[in-house]
Structure formats: structure tokens, C-alpha cells
Amino acid sequence: MSIFIKIVALTGLGFTIIPSLLVFTDHISFEMHTNLMIVGMILWFVASPFWMKEKEL
Fold first, then answer.
1. For 9, 10, 31, 51, which has the most beta carbons within 10 A of its beta carbon?
2. 19 exposed, middle or buried (CB, 10 Å; 0-12, 13-18, 19+)?
3. How many domains does the chain have?
């Protein structure tokens, strides 16, 4: 399960970084950029707390 959460979190992070580069190079429209960024934000903020939470002693 931990590997799955890491993959989802990193995918969300990718969806927040890569669309910016693609819109800068004029490969996608700004509307598509906005949609991908929203999906990436949701994926990142849902999955990353489970990935990065500290283990209790």
C-alpha cells in the first residue's frame, strides 16, 4: 500500500510541474493546463499526508 500511495503522490506532483512546462512551450492550451493542475493538486494533497506522516513511537 505504501508504494501505491507514493506513486499516486508523485503522479500528482508531476501533474503540477509538467503542465507548466507544456503550456510554456505551447504544446497544450491554458485551459488544459488548469485542469491538469487541479487534478495534480487533488492527488498530491490527498496522498502525500499518508506518505509523509511520521511513525509513532
1. 9
2. buried
3. 1
Whole-prediction pTM: 0.79
**Under 8 Å CB-to-CB from 45, ≥6 apart: which residues?**
12
**7: domain range?**
2-49
| Digit-coded pLDDT (tens) for 1-56 | 688 988 999 999 999 999 999 999 999 999 999 999 999 999 999 998 888 876 65
Residue with cell 505551447: 26
Grid cell of 8 as nine digits: 499516486
Residue 55 counted as domain residue: no
